[in-house]
């Protein structure tokens, strides 16, 4: 999953033709962008009623349950999700089922979150005797604040649709099975705007008002996302991610972590 996600981000970077510094890649005329594609948003969702259960613990035991490989995994996923967040695309996580551990970190990498009424998001890392290592700790703090982040990560209590909405973590609650549709409707708010056109009637009556939908400028929406994501491209932000990575690396693969993983697999 991790390598596949990195490949997907590579493809998205190529599609939008922006690098992570906000510069155009191999495009001489910015006006050519709109002619090539109108992509300004992306919906991240799972399959089989599960958003993402994070790291496959059987894979962890056999391949990466050592401090060295844990650090490599952390760097890969921090880089992947950082690059994902720097894309000039508005992202929505459509969470059906559960998002656990690394899956919860992936949810934080999206700009907005749509969760079904029955879904739950859990940061279970502390139960595995580690901390978030994919940048999710920093992102959760940014979303809900330090105190709430400590409660969520420290207790591993699930974030439900309702308490997530109250915390400002969840943006849209959807009926079960409708997350993707609701996420699409949510994204449309950034693609279209409505205009009341009174030119035909001229008297201001509702009978003479037409509701028109026009697509927003792709370049403007992308530029807005680049402006927002710039706040996460500072040295201070990157140093925080590095600190999170080092803390994660000091815990991953240690006896308590190994014992917790093996116990979970039984």
Automatic annotation (TrEMBL):
<dbReference type="InterPro" id="IPR029045">
    <property type="entry name" value="ClpP/crotonase-like_dom_sf"/>
</dbReference>
<comment type="similarity">
    <text>Belongs to the enoyl-CoA hydratase/isomerase family.</text>
</comment>
<dbReference type="InterPro" id="IPR018376">
    <property type="entry name" value="Enoyl-CoA_hyd/isom_CS"/>
</dbReference>
<protein>
    <recommendedName>
        <fullName>Ethylmalonyl-CoA decarboxylase</fullName>
        <ecNumber>4.1.1.94</ecNumber>
    </recommendedName>
</protein>
<dbReference type="GO" id="GO:0006635">
    <property type="term" value="P:fatty acid beta-oxidation"/>
</dbReference>
<dbReference type="GO" id="GO:0004492">
    <property type="term" value="F:methyl/ethyl malonyl-CoA decarboxylase activity"/>
</dbReference>
<comment type="function">
    <text>Decarboxylates ethylmalonyl-CoA, a potentially toxic metabolite, to form butyryl-CoA, suggesting it might be involved in metabolite proofreading. Acts preferentially on (S)-ethylmalonyl-CoA but also has some activity on the (R)-isomer. Also has methylmalonyl-CoA decarboxylase activity at lower level.</text>
</comment>
<dbReference type="GO" id="GO:0005829">
    <property type="term" value="C:cytosol"/>
</dbReference>
<keyword id="KW-0456">Lyase</keyword>
<dbReference type="Pfam" id="PF00378">
    <property type="entry name" value="ECH_1"/>
</dbReference>
<dbReference type="InterPro" id="IPR001753">
    <property type="entry name" value="Enoyl-CoA_hydra/iso"/>
</dbReference>
<keyword id="KW-0963">Cytoplasm</keyword>
């Amino acid at each position: 999953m991790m390598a596949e996600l990195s490949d997907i981000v590579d493809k998205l970077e190529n599609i939008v033709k922006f690098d992570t510094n906000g510069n155009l890649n191999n495009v001489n005329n910015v006006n050519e962008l709109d002619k090539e594609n109108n992509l300004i948003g992306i919906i991240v969702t799972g399959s089989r009623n599960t958003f993402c259960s994070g790291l496959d613990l059987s894979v962890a035991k056999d391949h990466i349950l050592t401090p060295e490989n844990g650090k490599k995994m952390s760097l890969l996923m921090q880089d992947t999700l950082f690059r994902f967040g720097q894309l000039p695309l508005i992202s929505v996580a459509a969470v059906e089922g559960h998002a656990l551990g690394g899956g919860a970190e992936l949810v934080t990498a999206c700009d907005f979150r749509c969760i079904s009424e029955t879904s739950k998001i859990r940061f279970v890392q502390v139960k595995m005797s580690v901390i978030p290592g994919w940048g999710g700790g920093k992102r959760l703090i940014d979303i809900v604040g330090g105190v709430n982040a400590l409660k969520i990560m420290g207790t591993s209590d699930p974030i439900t649709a309702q308490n997530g909405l109250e915390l400002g973590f969840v943006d849209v609650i959807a009926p079960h099975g409708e997350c993707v549709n609701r996420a699409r409707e949510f994204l449309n708010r950034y693609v279209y705007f409505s205009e009341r056109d009174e030119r035909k009637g001229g008297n201001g009556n509702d009978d003479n008002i037409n509701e028109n939908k026009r697509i927003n400028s792709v370049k403007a929406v992308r530029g807005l996302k680049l402006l927002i994501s710039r706040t996460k491209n500072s040295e201070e932000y990157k140093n925080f991610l590095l600190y999170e990575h080092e803390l994660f690396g000091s815990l991953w693969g240690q006896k308590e972590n190994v014992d917790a993983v093996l116990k979970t697999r039984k």
